[in-house]
Every structure is written in structure tokens, then in C-alpha cells.
């Protein structure tokens, strides 16, 4: 996947999360609210497969601590400062999915196992349960997670 396509996919996912538009009715997002936050660290995470592997839940409450350490120690050359990470993670944390939807977008194995997780509330719940078991990270954030911004059917 080209970096241009990857960044387009990231922008699309973030836009859907902030506007609440379904992927099928997506309209380009006006400058705000995406520009209210520094997305440098989140974009660095999304652009680097090595970070996905090292910090599989780096954009979620379960993995943000380790991702923040990476930003503090190694992220400056990518523009991924601790401050930019806190800004982007804070924005993701405002959504019911708590960063899980964006993480899902960069996890082909998750997509293969749960192909309808973004449009089926039941399958999203199955994804959350599976993530809790696979990554040994049960918690209220996963129990309460919901794919905000996407049109989910019940069942």
C-alpha cells in the first residue's frame, strides 16, 4: 500500500469518526475538528508497520502507555512527540471505540476474522471480546466500546 493511499485511508477513518457519516455517505470533512489536534504521532503510528507490531494496541487505552514511551524516546524524527501523541490519543479517546476502529483499519488479521465489525454491533462486540483475550487486556474501555461514527446494525 502506498503512503499516499495509507494517509488517505487514515484521514477517511478519522473523518468518519468525527463527522458520524457512514463510509458509504462520506463527504470531505471541513477543517475543524480534525485540525484542533496534533495528529503527528497517530499518523506516524499508522504509517509504520513496525509500530503496529511493537504496540498492537498503541492507539487504545490498553497500549497507549508504551506508545507514549516510544514517542518520548524515539518519535521526534517522525514528528511524533509526546505532546502530539497526547493530543491525538485524547481526540481518539473521546469516541466510544477508544481508538479501536482506527487500529482495526491497520490489522488485516482482525479484518479477516471479523469482516463486518464496523457495521455489525454483534461482530464488533465479538471483536472486543477477542481483543481482550488475545492481548490479555480486559477492561471497562473494551466492555463499553462501540464503533462510533459507523452505521452498525444490531445482530
Structure description:
The protein is mainly α and 155 residues long. It is 55% helix and 0% strand. The chain contains nine helices and no strands. The N and C termini lie far apart (32 Å). The model is unreliable at 22-32 (pLDDT under 50).
The biggest beta sheet is recorded as:
none
Give start-end ranges of low-pLDDT stretches: 22-32
The percent range for strand residues is under 5%
Number of strands: 0
Secondary-structure element order, as H and E? HHHHHHHHH
Derived from helix and strand composition plus strand pairing, the structural class reads: mainly alpha
**Number of H/I helices:** 9
Arithmetic mean of pLDDT: 81
Rg computed from alpha carbons, rounded to a whole number of angstroms: 15 Å
Distance between the termini: 32 Å
Large-scale geometry: globular
Range of helix content: 40-55%
Task: List key phrases describing it.
155 residues
How does the SSE layout of this entry go?
Elements: H1 3-19, H2 40-47, H3 49-54, H4 64-74, H5 82-93, H6 100-105, H7 108-113, H8 121-134, H9 140-144
Helix pairs in contact: 4-5
Summarize the structure.
The protein is mostly helical and 155 residues long. It has helices at residues 3-19, 40-47, 49-54, 64-74, 82-93, 100-105, 108-113, 121-134, 140-144. The longest helix is centred in the first third of the chain and has 17 residues, at 3-19.
Amino acid at each position: 500500500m502506498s503512503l499516499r493511499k495509507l494517509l488517505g485511508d487514515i484521514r477517511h477513518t478519522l473523518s468518519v469518526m468525527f463527522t458520524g457519516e457512514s463510509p458509504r455517505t462520506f463527504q470531505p470533512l471541513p477543517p475543524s475538528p480534525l485540525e484542533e489536534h496534533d495528529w503527528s504521532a497517530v499518523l506516524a503510528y499508522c504509517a509504520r508497520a513496525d509500530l503496529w507490531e511493537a504496540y498492537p494496541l498503541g492507539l487504545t487505552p490498553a497500549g497507549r502507555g508504551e506508545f507514549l514511551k516510544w514517542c518520548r524516546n524515539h518519535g521526534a524524527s517522525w514528528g511524533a512527540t509526546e505532546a502530539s501523541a497526547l493530543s491525538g490519543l485524547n481526540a481518539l479517546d473521546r469516541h466510544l471505540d477508544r481508538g479501536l476502529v482506527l487500529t482495526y483499519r491497520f490489522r488485516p488479521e482482525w479484518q479477516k476474522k471479523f469482516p463486518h465489525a464496523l457495521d455489525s454491533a454483534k461482530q464488533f462486540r465479538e471483536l472486543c471480546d477477542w481483543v481482550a483475550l488475545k492481548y490479555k487486556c480486559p477492561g471497562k474501555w473494551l466492555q463499553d466500546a462501540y464503533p462510533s461514527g459507523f452505521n452498525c446494525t444490531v445482530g
